Amino acid sequence: MSGMHDFTLASARDALKARKISAVELTNAHLDAIERLDGRLNSFITRTPDQARVAAKAADEVLAKGEGGALTGIPLGIKDLFCTNGVRTTAASKILGNFVPPYESTVTSNLLRDGAVFLGKLNLDEFAMGSANLTSAFGPVENPWKRNGSDAKLVPGGSSGGSAAAVAAGLVLGATGTDTGGSIRQPAAFTGIAGIKPTYGRCSRFGTIAFASSLDQAGPMARNLQDCAILLESMAGFDERDSTSVDTPVPNYEAALTRGVRGLRVGIPKEYHAPGMPAEIEALWQQGINWLKAAGAEIVDISLPHTKYGLPTYYIAALAEASSNLARYDGVRFGERVNGSSLDALYEATRAAGFGEEVKRRILIGTHVLSSGYYDAYYLRAQKVRTLIQRDFLSAYENVDVILTPTAPSGAFAQDEKPTDPVQMYLNDVFTVPASMAGVPALSVPAGLDAQGVPLGLQLIGKFFDEETLIAAGHVIEQAASFTHRPAIHAGVSA
Amino acid sequence: MSYRITGNTGEWEIVVGLEVHAQVISNAKLFSGASASYGGEPNTHVSLIDAGFPGMLPVLNRECVAQAVRTGLGLNAQINLFSRFDRKNYFYADLPTGYQISQFAHPIVGEGKVLVDLADGSTREIGVTRLHLEQDAGKSVHDQDPTRSFIDLNRAGVALMEIVSEPDIRSPEEAGAYLRKLRQILRYIGTCDGNMEEGSMRADVNVSVRKPGEEGYRTRCEIKNVNSIRYVMQSIEVEAQRQIEIWEAGGEVDQETRLFDHVRSETRSLRSKEDAHDYRYFPDPDLLPLVIEQSWVDELKAALPELPEAKRERLEQDYGVSRYEASVLTAEQAVADFYETVAKGADARLATNWMLGDFFAALNRTGRSIEDSPVSAEGLRELLALISDSTINGKIAKEVLEDMVETGESASAIVERKGLRQVTDTGAIETSIREILAANADKVAEYKSGKDKLFGFFVGQTMKAMKGKGNPALVNEMLKKLLSE
Predict the structure, then answer these.
(1) How many Cβ atoms from other residues are within 10 Å of residue A495's Cβ?
(2) Is A130 part of a structural domain of the chain?
(3) How does pLDDT run along chain B (485 residues), one tens digit per residue?
(4) What is the pLDDT of residues A313-329, one digit of tens each?
(5) Are residues B458 and B479 in contact, defined by beta-carbon separation less than 8 angstroms?
(6) Looking at residue A408, which CATH number applies to its domain?
(7) CA-CA distance, B264 to B242, in Å (whole number)?
(8) d(CA B282, CA A19)
(9) CB-based burial of residue B104 (10 Å sphere; 0-12 exposed, 13-18 middle, 19+ buried)?
(10) Out of A210, A240, A327, closest to residue B55 by CB
(11) Which residues does the entry assign to the active site, renumbered to this chain (chain A) (predicted)?
């Protein structure tokens, strides 16, 4: 059945529509791959093979009538931060226990509406807090890629590490991710796949477990940008149940793919030449510039002067919100409870046992920066800087249409190379955080391998609600890079 | 007359500000579609949003915003076209999300004022600092089980308006008058039912004391959640007394939150300033700033009902009632409406006297409210019309009203059924009088020898003989005539 793993989402869709393959065989092939490989990768927290087979059978019935939506019969994985009706949802935390939501998130409802088949819930950093998928209560996810001649287990990035690994290994044709400061883009880069963080407000946050509400944004992760475009078109849209979702029409993103970049002005921000960045990443960035230039784009040097404040202000703003968002996990109404002799004792025992170390650290920091006496110095100041960062982008967009940067300052590192200093770990997000703070859309596309054979990504940052230009420019890089490498662990490779 | 408390060191003035929590009248809660109605089995009016489930998001209920704006207009207050919702963070079992959504830095309504009427006929202006929208919490029930507490989230997420007064109140009486006036305005506009027993209006009372003429304020204490006007007035009195005793003993009043125990008539410390929560307010990132249009505010203003102040003045002008009568008649919108239905096109003086006299007495006696009055406004108007056109006299009318209350029959039906029509036939009256005079020849002699007071006796006897139906004016006239014969 190895042919089943050569499909992209788009080609599988076409084959399904043409009845060259059935949804059931496509789903079974992916379920088999999960069975075969995921004991090792640990990209799934919850597998739903029975529901998947039922859904695939139903999809075949629809397809047989010549009907069906954009995703009918397409096997997907869902980051376990999206609430799924009747299916356990954990946020990779012990504190939610065996929480089974009686409701479906808007994003996954949209995918189901269009006929998608869910294979299960994908691993992530606990409450999406991490950059290496090492903080999950369900264990780390292994990156299916290997360094040349080494069997060291690499991290898939985070927080959407399970989504990234599952897509890269061919266990699913696409996955949902969420991105608060880089959680789609950085793991996409680490695993050689494509991922889009849409404009804040493009995808509804309803039913998605919150990390930092003013930054969280759902987006697609898939083998290439065409697949991402198809997924995004399904996931996006106004939702009156999310007050921050924006009521603007969803364009045909797939059609934007081949627009090209002729005459497009591409900004290169000088502040992204981070000190200590590996030369091969600088080189890859230059390669990206050359590709876009060769395709007819105009390269413009720009400045985003407040970039260096992005990371510290992000870790204030995001954690302040997180400390409040996570207060509801108190053992009273749902999830795990550890009893205590008083209400306060119950809270303390429940939260001490339920949250992992990184989540606790972030709740503490977030609580601190909102505390009386510190609020002005931290939270308020961070909000002001955030405005400046947004202004940086707005003034840059007076002269350019998109901005090109590396996605991350390094390729995937090994699980045991995890920095002991948490701040060192936070540096992974240095290039992805500014776009999140500004709310503008950004994507990552695989652009090459480093000297050790590990994938690297390039990031494109766009104007508000102009995902189409991003996709068009990203596709030019995709084509020029012709990234056809496959990871060591892949469904299409006999194990 | 300024209110003063006399301590050992002389007179003290009290300084009071009130924070009133008024539950907004609306079908749904502030940020969810769950019913906001009072009562119901525990946890039956709860949405997943109210229960703080993962991934649930608040969506602002526009009607609650309209109610806050209407209330602000009723308080002559500034309406802020830009306002914002903040999170007030604290842990409690009946607060599902771990934060209350409130408006901290940017309330929807700014400064306003309330005119209160005092018993001596004077009025005082009490400043309103602000009004903001916020969610109510759920209810913890601790007395159903020896070891466990139960949580009822029906109230969780219901919209409240917190109305904060300036520290302008100087006596328990003013506090009571302010609360009554506030409640009256809210009820008129229909934004809060003002029912303190059901908890739809509660007050936090801030009290401090100082020497008359002293500049600035001394440390205040906040008495939480007082749920009747009477208790508010009592709590101010006992708290002021407590503080005066501390100051006079050379001590310092500590800033703290206290509870009022109405059984023991004392306040008790709930938590000190050191134990005060750090609420870590910050803008709720799930909600956009609330921006409203002036044109919408204007629309709401145009649709406001006549407010108590204006109505009272109009009643004074249109119906010639005194200021006191007008304020009684406008205490409740329903009373004013009732009155106007009765008085319109009728003898306004007669209507006023009957409303404030026999009609209110009948309501009190039957324990009914104006809304479920046993006699309709139209029914009362008909009764008064029967007096005006001399079909019955006033004394008979009282009897008819009692009958109306009891049977629900109309005034004219009762008059017909019981044959109460007033006798205006002078012949019949003359016959009755002649019989009375004949039977009381001795009294007639006494009267004629100068005992004028006996006139009333003859009137009474005549009316009694006529079963009360004699036209009083005709009876008087005829008696005078026959006695002078």
Answers:
(1) 9
(2) yes
(3) 589 999 999 999 999 999 999 999 999 999 999 999 988 999 999 999 999 999 999 999 999 999 999 999 999 999 999 999 999 999 999 999 999 999 999 999 999 999 998 988 899 999 999 999 999 999 999 889 988 889 999 999 999 999 999 999 999 999 999 999 999 999 999 999 999 888 899 999 999 999 999 999 999 999 999 999 999 999 999 999 999 999 999 999 999 999 999 999 999 998 887 777 899 999 999 999 999 999 999 999 999 999 999 999 999 999 999 999 999 999 999 999 999 999 987 899 999 999 999 999 999 999 999 999 999 999 999 999 999 888 888 888 998 999 999 998 999 889 888 877 877 778 888 888 888 888 888 888 888 888 888 888 888 888 888 888 888 888 888 888 888 87
(4) 999 999 999 999 999 99
(5) yes
(6) 3.90.1300.10
(7) 14
(8) 55
(9) middle
(10) A210
(11) 79, 159, 183
User: Nearest 5 degrees, angle CA B163-CA B165-CA B170?
Assistant: 145
The one-letter amino acid code at A87 reads V
Q: Is residue A355 part of a domain?
A: no
**DSSP code, position A483:** -
- In this predicted complex, what is the ipTM? 0.96
Task: Supply φ then ψ for residue B128, to 5 degrees.
Answer: -105, 125
Q: Which domains does chain B have, with CATH numbers?
A: 5-299 (no CATH), 306-418 (no CATH), 426-483 (1.10.10.410)
Tokens of B120: 């001596």
Interfacial B residues in 36-75 facing A (CB < 8 Å) = 48, 51-60
- Pairwise CA distance, residues B228 & B225, whole Å: 9
- Among A105, A183, A234, A245, which one carries the catalytic annotation? A183
φ/ψ (deg, to 5) at B424: -115, 0
Q: Is the dihedral of CA B395, B396, B400, B406 positive or negative?
A: positive
Cis peptide before A159 (omega within 30 of 0): yes
Give the residue ranges of chain A where pLDDT is below 70.
Answer: 1-2, 493-495
Specify the residue for token string 């002001």: A384
Return mean pLDDT, chain A.
96
- Amino acid B273: pLDDT: 76
CA distance A407 to A457: 5
Identify whether A174 is part of a domain.
yes
Q: Are residues A347 and B91, on separate chains, in Cβ contact within 8 Å?
A: yes
Residue that the structure tokens 């590192």 belong to: A413
Q: Cβ of B456 under 8 Å from any chain A Cβ?
A: no
Nearest residue, CB atoms, A334 vs list B53, B60, B99: B53
Alpha carbon distance B2, B165 (integer Å): 20
Options A79, A121, A146, A197, the catalytic residue: A79
Q: Is A183 one of the annotated active-site residues of the chain?
A: yes
> Is A241 exposed, middle or buried, given 0-12, 13-18 or 19+ CB atoms closer than 10 A?
middle
Q: Please tell me the distance from the alpha carbon of residue A113 to that of residue B142, in angstroms, as a whole number.
A: 46
Q: Which residues contact B194 (CB under 8 A, 6 or more apart)?
A: B22, B183, B184, B186, B187, B200, B201
Q: How long, in residues, is chain A? A: 495
Give the count of domains, chain A: 1
A186 within some domain: yes
Q: Which residue has the tokens 């501390």?
A: B246
Domain that holds residue A144: 2-265+399-481
Structure tokens at B158: 């219901």
Tell me which long-range contacts A11-17 makes (C-beta under 8 A, separation of at least 24): A12/A73, A12/A74, A12/A173, A13/A70, A13/A71, A13/A73, A13/A74, A13/A230, A16/A59, A16/A63, A16/A68, A16/A72, A16/A73, A16/A74, A17/A63, A17/A68
C-alpha distances in angstroms, A218 versus A128, B118, B182?
12, 60, 47
* Preferred mutation among A211, A321, A368, A387 to probe B, highest tally of B CBs within 10 A: A321
Locate B414 and state its tokens: 């009762």
